[in-house]
Hints:
It is a single chain. 35% of the residues lie in helices and 12% in strands. It has a domain of 124 residues. The protein contains 8 helices and 5 strands; from the N terminus they run αααααββααβββα. It is α+β, with helices and mostly antiparallel strands. The strands form 2 sheets. A 3-stranded antiparallel β-sheet has the order 3-4-5, with no helix packed on it. Strands 1-2 form a two-stranded antiparallel ribbon. α7 runs antiparallel to α8. A hairpin with a 3-residue loop joins β3 and β4. Bound molecules: zinc ion. Zinc ion binds next to loops. The site of zinc ion (ZN) has 7 residues, from loops.
Amino acid sequence: MKRTGLHRRSPLRATGQLQRHTSLSPARPVEDAVADVQRIPLRRHVHLRRCTSRIPRQLRAAVYDRAEGTCDMCGRWLQPDLWEANHRLMRSQGGRDALINLVALHPACHRGPQGVHHRPAWAYANGLLVPARRDPQQWPVLRHGLIWQMPLGRTWADCDPHPDQLERLADLDEDGDAA
Ligand SMILES: [Zn+2]
C-alpha cells in the first residue's frame, strides 16, 4: 500500500512526554507563592502591582470585609480581586498601613478622573483623604457620599463630621473642586 505523508510520520512517543509531566512537583501551598512574590525586589514589585501591593494580605482582607464588599466611596459592589486600598493619610505624610487609615475603592474611584487623587479638595472634605498633620481618628469619612462614619477597627461607626470638614465641603464648587 502506498503510504501518505501522514502515515510516514513516526508516532509521538507519548510515554516519554507523559513521564515529564508526572515529574513535576505537587501543587505548592498558596503561602509559598505569596512568599515568592514578596521576595521580588521592591521596585519591580511596585511596578507590577501598584501601590497597594505592600499592604499585608490579611489587612487588605479586613478592609474589604469591613466595606462588606462595596466601595467606601461610591457604595457600589467591589469585585474581590479588583479593588484598591487607599491610604487616607497618605504614606508620604506618615500615614500607616492600619484599618483606621485605609478604605476600599474601585480603581476608578481611587485614581480615575473623578477619583480621590484627582479631586483632593473634595476628598479631604469627605474624609477619603486626611489632610497632613491631621489625625485619621479625628477625621471621619462621608461614606458612600451619604453618612458620616469612622472606620473603627473592623466596623464602621456613625459619628459627626469634624467642623473643618463641613467648612471644606461648603467651600467646594458644584464639581467638587476647591472654589
Ligand atoms: Zn467606587
